[in-house]
Design brief:
Length: 458
């Protein structure tokens, strides 16, 4: 009893320390040695618990190190299938599917029989990286060993296929699933519905929804929200509202994602007053706007050319201390620049550090584009240089935006310089930049130096 109590205390100590020593493989090894010094010989289950804990923390290398540690001990404890499953799962989530397959082979070599969890984790990992042939091979292998796929296995396949846009294949798997007597669950149906919605096949999505209800499988908030988003994407807002009413009548609690989806839908069809009303109604249903809610409504108002309303709402958000991030500020800066309120944008941009926000590549690109639009090319170039000085390297979009601004203002000598810089950094001119370049060449055919340079870079 004393030994078990000591072991539990050690495991609790390990969990506390490993959280503060995240990523420290050596610490995991030291912990096992510490248990030895206490006179306790860890068995396979103890090692499995440690491995599982490390994997849950995302520390796959430490988990593997513990596994290898068991192989060097005089009395080799046998790590259970559950321990191997934890590492296989962690490797797949890390994108190391080949390593996961190698560990799977190692298991079988050691006489450990993989179970349904082992196969499910590997199949999911393979499907995530579109390794369909290998996934099919594993599926066949497990059947031969009598480890038949269950609802979870089929759902993994259906979900992966739908995300790849392979709806016909997903339907075939669903049919096979039913023939084998496995009933689809809410996750299976949701995957099919999401697949159809992604391809704007809303009538097909509704057929799956109706089948789901007919089979006695109650749709959840996620399923309704996915359908609402699908209808909003194709601007069928009346259909989205119908589903919203149905959700409420069925006693489902709308989450913030549902509200964001509806706000997005109303903005998309230009119903900005309805979108604002939804934004301010959320709290009555127990939901507070998040950063996405704020970004969606502000973007919608700016795109409806209601910049004054958008800026007023933004100031109210700031006053109410809503959790706004750089994405929200980017939306406002872009809207201000498009509304030709450059001074407001510059003032807001200068306040970002004081708000604890660091401008990203997109922030700088927005400001450079705004400056170029007003013909302030020197200021735009200065911001481009400041961007690099602040450790935010310009990307292809930034250079293209600046060069476009130069070409629109006929600053061809400066554009030559930045074409070369962009090329040296491995970036290429996009379609808009090339179109402006062609237009410039067609009206400046006599400028040989410029044409010679173009021949070098195109």
């Amino acid at each position: 009893m004393m030994l078990r109590s000591s072991t539990r205390a050690s495991l609790r100590f390990f969990r506390r320390q490993s959280e503060s020593q995240f990523g420290n493989v050596d610490y995991a090894i030291l912990f096992v040695d510490h248990m030895d010094n206490m006179g306790y010989q860890p068995d396979g289950h103890t090692f499995g618990a440690i491995i599982n804990g490390l994997c849950k923390m995302g520390n796959t290398p430490a988990a593997i190190a513990i596994l290898r540690k068991t192989e060097t001990r005089k009395c080799k404890p046998s790590v259970t299938v559950a321990g191997y499953n934890a590492i296989v799962d962690s490797l797949c989530k890390d994108g190391l599917v080949s390593e996961a397959l190698s560990l799977f082979s190692e298991m079988t070599t050691k006489g450990l029989q993989p179970d349904t969890i082992t196969y499910d984790r590997l199949i999911q990992g393979l499907c995530t990286f579109s390794k369909w042939q290998e996934a099919a091979s594993l599926l066949s292998e497990r059947k031969q060993k009598g480890i038949m796929p269950d609802t979870h296995t089929f759902t993994i396949l259906v979900d992966a296929l739908c995300k790849e846009g392979k709806i016909s294949s997903a339907r075939a798997i669903l049919g096979q699933m039913v023939r084998m007597g496995k009933e689809p669950d809410v996750v299976t149906y949701h995957s099919m519905i999401a697949g159809y919605c992604f391809q704007n096949q809303m009538e097909e999505a509704l057929k799956v929804f109706d089948l789901m209800v007919h089979k006695g499988c109650q749709p959840d908030v996620n399923t309704y929200t996915t359908l609402i988003h699908g209808w909003c994407k194709i601007k069928r807002i009346n259909k989205a509202i119908y589903l919203l009413d149905e959700m409420i009548n069925n006693g489902l609690n709308l989450d913030v994602v549902t509200w964001n989806t509806l706000i997005y839908g109303f903005c998309k069809v230009g119903k900005r007053l309805a979108a604002k009303e939804l934004f301010f109604t959320m709290h009555k249903f127990g939901q507070c706007p998040d950063v996405f809610s704020c970004a969606i409504i502000l973007d919608g108002l700016f795109k409806c050319h209601l910049s004054s309303d958008a800026i007023s709402l933004f100031r109210e958000m700031e006053k109410n201390n809503l959790d706004l991030n750089i994405v929200t500020y980017n939306v406002v800066l872009r809207g201000m620049c498009h509304a030709r309120k450059l001074n407001d944008a510059l003032e807001l941009f200068s306040c970002l550090p004081a708000k604890g926000l660091k401008p990203d590549q997109y922030t700088y690109t927005i400001m450079i584009q705004g400056l170029c639009r007003e013909g302030l090319l020197i200021d735009a170039e200065e911001m481009l240089m400041n961007m690099e000085e602040h450790g935010c390297l310009p990307d292809s979009c930034t250079y293209n935006v600046f060069i476009q601004g130069l070409l629109r203002r006929n600053a061809f000598l400066k554009s030559i310089k930045y074409f070369q810089i962009m090329k040296d950094k491995g970036f290429a001119a996009n379609a808009t930049t090339m179109e402006l370049l062609v237009d410039y060449l067609s009206t400046h055919k006599g400028e040989n130096a410029f044409q010679e340079f173009v021949q070098k870079i195109v």
